[in-house]
Amino acid sequence: MEKQSATEAILAAKEEKGLTFAQIAEAVGRHPVWTTSALLGQQQMSEKEAAAVAAVLDLPDEVAAQLQRFPTKGSLPETVPTDPLIYRFHEIVQVYGTTLKALIHEEFGDGIMSAIDFEMDIERVPDPKGDRVKVTLNGKFLPYRKW
Amino acid sequence: MEKQSATEAILAAKEEKGLTFAQIAEAVGRHPVWTTSALLGQQQMSEKEAAAVAAVLDLPDEVAAQLQRFPTKGSLPETVPTDPLIYRFHEIVQVYGTTLKALIHEEFGDGIMSAIDFEMDIERVPDPKGDRVKVTLNGKFLPYRKW
Amino acid sequence: MEKQSATEAILAAKEEKGLTFAQIAEAVGRHPVWTTSALLGQQQMSEKEAAAVAAVLDLPDEVAAQLQRFPTKGSLPETVPTDPLIYRFHEIVQVYGTTLKALIHEEFGDGIMSAIDFEMDIERVPDPKGDRVKVTLNGKFLPYRKW
Amino acid sequence: MEKQSATEAILAAKEEKGLTFAQIAEAVGRHPVWTTSALLGQQQMSEKEAAAVAAVLDLPDEVAAQLQRFPTKGSLPETVPTDPLIYRFHEIVQVYGTTLKALIHEEFGDGIMSAIDFEMDIERVPDPKGDRVKVTLNGKFLPYRKW
Amino acid sequence: MEKQSATEAILAAKEEKGLTFAQIAEAVGRHPVWTTSALLGQQQMSEKEAAAVAAVLDLPDEVAAQLQRFPTKGSLPETVPTDPLIYRFHEIVQVYGTTLKALIHEEFGDGIMSAIDFEMDIERVPDPKGDRVKVTLNGKFLPYRKW
Amino acid sequence: MEKQSATEAILAAKEEKGLTFAQIAEAVGRHPVWTTSALLGQQQMSEKEAAAVAAVLDLPDEVAAQLQRFPTKGSLPETVPTDPLIYRFHEIVQVYGTTLKALIHEEFGDGIMSAIDFEMDIERVPDPKGDRVKVTLNGKFLPYRKW
Amino acid sequence: MEKQSATEAILAAKEEKGLTFAQIAEAVGRHPVWTTSALLGQQQMSEKEAAAVAAVLDLPDEVAAQLQRFPTKGSLPETVPTDPLIYRFHEIVQVYGTTLKALIHEEFGDGIMSAIDFEMDIERVPDPKGDRVKVTLNGKFLPYRKW
Amino acid sequence: MEKQSATEAILAAKEEKGLTFAQIAEAVGRHPVWTTSALLGQQQMSEKEAAAVAAVLDLPDEVAAQLQRFPTKGSLPETVPTDPLIYRFHEIVQVYGTTLKALIHEEFGDGIMSAIDFEMDIERVPDPKGDRVKVTLNGKFLPYRKW
Amino acid sequence: MEKQSATEAILAAKEEKGLTFAQIAEAVGRHPVWTTSALLGQQQMSEKEAAAVAAVLDLPDEVAAQLQRFPTKGSLPETVPTDPLIYRFHEIVQVYGTTLKALIHEEFGDGIMSAIDFEMDIERVPDPKGDRVKVTLNGKFLPYRKW
Amino acid sequence: MEKQSATEAILAAKEEKGLTFAQIAEAVGRHPVWTTSALLGQQQMSEKEAAAVAAVLDLPDEVAAQLQRFPTKGSLPETVPTDPLIYRFHEIVQVYGTTLKALIHEEFGDGIMSAIDFEMDIERVPDPKGDRVKVTLNGKFLPYRKW
């Protein structure tokens, strides 16, 4: 069973059972964002986490096995995403990329925000003019090593 | 005077005077992230905001005029950024793009997070294991119109 | 059943029954343009709308289920379309893109025309020198948020 | 004097004199959209039209000469535009391209909407929930010739 | 049955029966170039033309149905063709593109040669130093509309 | 003096003197298409031909010298041309490329139409429904050598 | 049977029988380089040549039929080859391309080395410091036609 | 003085003095192909070789200094060359790349033909049917190291 | 059996038997890095080495046969890798590429580090602040041949 | 003074004074690899380090100022490098990328080798069969954070 088939089986079972990602995450004992990215094949689950997914979704062992394999990451088929929701994040990097560079550098010096020692959260912020999506990116600052 | 020359003049004056982006933003009366992106040519300033920049940096009127022109946005010379700091944000879109899609859709339905009715903040989060960069993206949810 | 198979089944049933997109749209209770884009996998139908499609085309429930899933949008396999009809619209963006930018900015200020809070219409305009195609794009103006 | 320099001289003079594209168009005797695209180097003006531009903007003869040269069209530096306003039109082609193909074909048969025998209009549509941009594309239908 | 399968079935039957494109074209009642491009999935046949193809090649009705569907045009898998015969035509556009632009503009004014109201012919020109291929492109001149 | 500067000087002088490409070609003693492509830097002129250009356009010797240098060919800045007139020829290769391959192969066997031992002509064909552009491509057939 | 399947069947049979390309070429009566490129789907064999391949490799008639079809040439899946052996030849074109242009032009005038009226040979040159590969490219010079 | 300026100065002096690449190579004491590629900025000359170039072409010391700097190699501005002469070599890699791989591997085992320990020669081969260009590539075979 | 299927069978068997790459390498009698790259289809094994793999993993003869075939090298589907682990190595080439060029040239003169006569090693370096990955690249210096 | 001009001034001064990168590094008090990459504009120097460079090379203060600015990293103009020395490292990533992924994952679990908390060394390894280049990459392992 390939990674993509495992993902499809998971999404089909989730739809059939009427579960949300948050409910599956609770069963797994992890944050919904991390859990979702793992179900979409971008993270490696522990044996226990994978078993919880298989249990809550009534899926066979090979799905659980697949979730424990080390994933080849990168979830998009194109360099510039065509889906409008995902494109907006690409646009933010295009428009605000140099701003991020300038401000992080001014505050921290030469280095990067890690995308590995990294967490992400997604929240709904109620607003009378229309609710808002709030995405929080939180990564360790890594200074360039000098030697 | 072209947009790029204006940006270079601003950055040179900022370096010479030893000002931070936050200090210029205070003079402008705007958030440091918005102000920085405007100074880097990605936003349009009002006459008063542009005048404040020129004043605090001792720059000629044509710099202020340039800051009020409508900008052609997109700050990066390549589709896939080569600078490691900026690339990490591209990587986050690659790795977590489908996760963002799945979770925003589940919560809000078919639509996008606006990158126009949008704010961004960048903070330093102290951490004994190494301080962290926290970037908050906050955009209005826009549902797809049906007609 | 995948999105593409659902689309193929729909187009085959439509051809066999000799229905137009407008007739299906009437059954659905939506505009023909929106309905067509939903049938081609670019919009999300409600349960009732999807059931109407299945009924009018005698298609199984899984087609209706597919029409209610959230679509990964972007209908073209290439960045520059090769089909001449679709390419003409790409050419219009190439030739008139800066004109659109200049005039919308002059009228509205810095912002965009939304492609989400957006409607499109396609009409035939009779003309003795050859009928004309009239495409109307209608999107909400979204000003850049300052903060 | 090159085309790009002529465009820059025109935009600078327009800004200095505080004229709108519509006012220049009136002087030229053409629609504002056509006039703007000509000023941006995408159309060929007649001698009289070019003279009107030079007169209203106090520009030298070589600008008028440049406006009468046949333009190499295509106003964007990249295939996928990075400016968010222009990108939205690219996105519309991506998301609605196959819809345009299906509906134009159903109505007219195999052929295209001309981008040459073509007019475009841009209007502001007042709306209490936020004004809207209405762009009308109007091109002659050209059926594929059989031989 | 997909377009590509129809094309493959047609070419296989043509090879088996030892027919030339010109012979099929005669049965169809169209020019060999147009007929060939239709058989290769780039044109839309009428019911009668499609029936003639099915008859002369002993092919089932679904091939005839496929030939009447509206084709997504563009016959090449790459932007720059790798097949040497087809590449030479790409090279002609590369080397002579600006020449075509300059001479058509000088003769006709600003506009294009239509690729829709268009005919092509291919002939063998006997020559003692080696026979020559003569390709004639014949398209209606379309002047840019001013409005 | 670089090739591009020579081309610009030639076009400026041609415009000032009000000469057509055909008139320059007559002075050179060559076909207008070949002459135009040489003036645009795609062919190598003999000393006598280059001198005729310099004489008829009152241009200095270094322009004549440049016209005799061996040109790096390829007149277009992009793989997919953005100018609509030139794009139409690219589109013809996209849509009719496999047709050209199939028919030339059927008539001649495995080989190509030379783009080197090659001539091109451009004519205006009067037509009551709108004059037509006729472009003739004429190249030697070169069979693949077997060894 | 498709071209690729024919190639795979040929290579499998060759491996099983322990034949070299040179031995198959001898059976065909052609040079090993030409024969190899034909077996890899880049040349068109005569009926007799194809029959010899089928005989020496014990392959069915449809393989022989495939070898006589006209091939769509271009054997590499990417523009820049990733296989190191093939990349070295790409690198030679990158590094020595302008050298080839300068020297062929100086010796022959404006024109090309044909890749159609063309032969290639590959030899092993014994050398005490390590044997060498010698590749000979031999193509007819084709001067640009003037008209 | 940059590498490109040095190359231009060399070519201009060569043209003015009416020297061939072979004559310069003789002065340098190297093969004409190597010398030409060095003059075009693709090889590093010794002090004595560079001095010989400067002497025979009456060029200043800084040209000689430039010829001794280590070159960033790669002489072509595009991945797929547009100049027809250079493209033919690209086409040979496209069409015969897998043939080169198969035959070199059969003869030598897994490895490559070096493009570093490498020589190239270009000769004119007289032929009554039209002279031929013969290009010889000669590189050391390098077997893949196993460890 | 294709190369990719062989790789998948090998990885599945390795997972099932709970073997490490190092253990398989020991059975093969080669270094773990070389063995891993061979198992991933990038090297050619001898008959004995391939048999050892088949034996230790209980795999059929055709897997062993596949491992002895000459591999088409290049293990990544994209030019810029999207997997973060592999991308870091791409980034190192981007950031340190000119440094490698400058220092190798200064030490060795004009030439390259071979990627063929080449070994790689990967080690874990314990470190109280977090263990480190040490990758050693070791290739023969090949000076550019002058001729 | 821009970054590139600073780099050029540094390299020119280094050549004129006959210094090696190692000698400059000694003056700076850093490793030669780090120092070289800083001189090539890929690292940020401290005030003292930059002053040492200016002193040892007799360069003005603005070069020292430039070396302290935060660099936009990425030293190569193309995605696939054309210079053969740098390409070999790209090839190593292509050929051994999946091997690096498999072995680092097996040893460390899901994560990456940092290219930020990273050191590189380049050594000459004498070898009677030809000296070898040894490049050591040493980066901290960063495990993927789970949350």
CATH superfamily descriptor of the largest domain in chain A? lambda repressor-like DNA-binding domains
CATH class bucket of the largest domain in chain A: Mainly Alpha
Q: Order of strands in the sheet with the most strands of chain A? A: 1-2
> Fraction of residues of chain A in helices?
40-55%
Assembly status: homodecamer
Which structural category fits the helices and strands of chain A?
alpha+beta
- Determine Rg of chain A (CA atoms, Å): 18 Å
H/E series of chain A: HHHHHHEE
**Total individual domains of chain A:** 2
Shape of chain A: globular
The termini of chain A sit apart by: 46 Å
Q: What would the average pLDDT of chain A be, to the nearest integer?
A: 93
Which two chains share the most extensive interface?
A-B, 65 and 65 residues
Please tell me the CATH architecture of the largest domain in chain A by its name.
Answer: Orthogonal Bundle
Q: Segments of chain A where pLDDT lies below 50 for 5+ residues?
A: none
Total of DSSP H or I helical runs spanning 4+ residues of chain A: 6
CATH T-level topology of the largest domain in chain A? 434 Repressor (Amino-terminal Domain)
DSSP, total strands of chain A: 2
